[in-house]
Design a protein that fits this description.
361 residues, alpha+beta, six-stranded mixed sheet, five-stranded antiparallel sheet, 8 helices, 20 strands, 22% helix, 35% strand, globular
Length: 361
């Protein structure tokens, strides 16, 4: 069942097209993570779904009913059955946790006091905060406040819950814990959600599907492993994870490159290609006759990322165990061990093109 349908959604601000002819469906019980860099249109898209901005073209359907259409229907936010969880929590400081959660139920016709209390208790149990029902927001940690905001959004049983980068102000350790708790709560409650974030790790971990936006365009929407391992465009390849592109020539599902013949993921390409390689897929071993030199190293705790200058003039990054990373200047052999076919993109060959550098200078 489709809960949310976006059909040709477009929103402009003067000459700037924030969202451009975007179409996608969100299904019942699904968490769709929308990810992209600053200025790509994520927030505008969320505002359009919530009813905080009008469309210049297209339409939005919620539970089969049109809630927004360019030049026509426009339901205000309070009539859309949409819950929103903001980055700044937006809790009422003069109300207790219980009162904040119950506030979202107060306007629901036909819902008696007993039903409101029961639902309030249910969602507070769901976010594991029932024991703090009588506290005020200022008496809670940032993570606890965010869980109260989630409980308040879920309490009215909205058709859709929207998340506007809700964890970006939290420290990394707390952000990871809260992300896992939020995913658990959403799935236990059977909620349908659109989760907007600029954090690629967050998008890949919380989304049943991931939609990647770039300059207002939908570049790809797919399951997280598909988006990561077989990106549809070069932008997606580089945005959802570190990636380098190796020149190659494709024949019969394989590409001949300077680091060997590499298996390609479909669709099958023939001729000059660029093959995407991620640093964790690169294997390095010291070899005086090897075809690469270690140009740079960056310590990352358990891993060290090394930058390799290949004799071909190309560069690769490799993530290596901290006690196996070769020192600067070491000549090494390089091969790729991905365990799956690699994404590739057609490459135009130009005789005047300088040698490309895929890793940072």
């Amino acid at each position: 069942m489709t809960v949310l349908r976006l059909a040709g959604v477009t929103r402009r601000y003067g000459d700037v097209v924030a969202v451009d002819d975007l179409s996608l469906d969100v299904h019942d019980g699904e968490v769709l993570a929308v990810v992209g860099p600053s200025g790509c249109g994520k927030t505008t898209l969320l505002q359009a779904i919530a009813g905080l901005t009008r469309l210049d073209a297209g339409r939005i359907e919620l539970d089969g009913a049109i809630v927004a259409e360019a030049g026509g229907t426009f339901l205000p936010p309070e009539q859309r059955r949409v819950g929103v969880v903001f980055q700044d929590h937006a809790l009422f400081p003069h109300l207790t946790v219980a009162e904040n959660v119950e506030f979202g139920l107060s306007g629901k016709g036909g819902l008696g006091r007993r039903e409101r209390v029961a639902r309030r208790h249910e969602v507070l149990e769901l976010v594991q905060l029932a024991h703090l029902a009588d506290r005020y927001p200022h008496e809670l940690s940032g993570g606890e406040q965010q869980r109260v905001a989630l409980a308040r959004a879920l309490a009215p049983r909205p058709a859709l819950v929207l998340f506007d980068e809700p964890f970006s102000s939290l420290d990394p350790n707390l952000r990871g814990d809260l992300r896992r708790q939020t995913a658990r709560v959403l799935r236990q409650d059977g909620a349908t959600a659109v989760f907007v974030t600029h954090d690629r790790e967050e998008a890949l971990s919380i989304g049943d599907r991931v939609a990647v936006l770039h300059d207002g365009h939908l570049e790809q929407v797919d399951a997280p492993p598909v988006v990561f391992h077989t990106p549809a465009t070069r932008f997606v390849a580089s945005f959802v994870g570190e990636a380098d592109l190796l020149d190659g020539v494709a024949t019969a599902g394989r590409a001949r490159t300077v680091v060997g013949d590499l298996e390609l993921a479909g669709p099958a390409l023939e001729g000059p290609v660029e093959v995407m390689v991620r640093p964790h897929e690169v294997v390095v071993s010291p070899d005086p006759a090897g075809a690469a030199v270690v140009r740079d190293r960056e310590f990352r705790g358990g891993l060290v990322q090394v930058v390799l200058d290949l004799d071909s003039g190309e560069r690769l990054r490799a993530d290596l165990h901290h006690d196996r990373a070769p020192v600067l200047g070491t000549r090494v052999a390089v091969h790729v061990d991905a365990g799956h076919g690699l994404a590739s993109f057609p490459r135009e060959v130009r005789s005047d093109e300088p040698v490309r550098s895929t890793a940072p200078a």
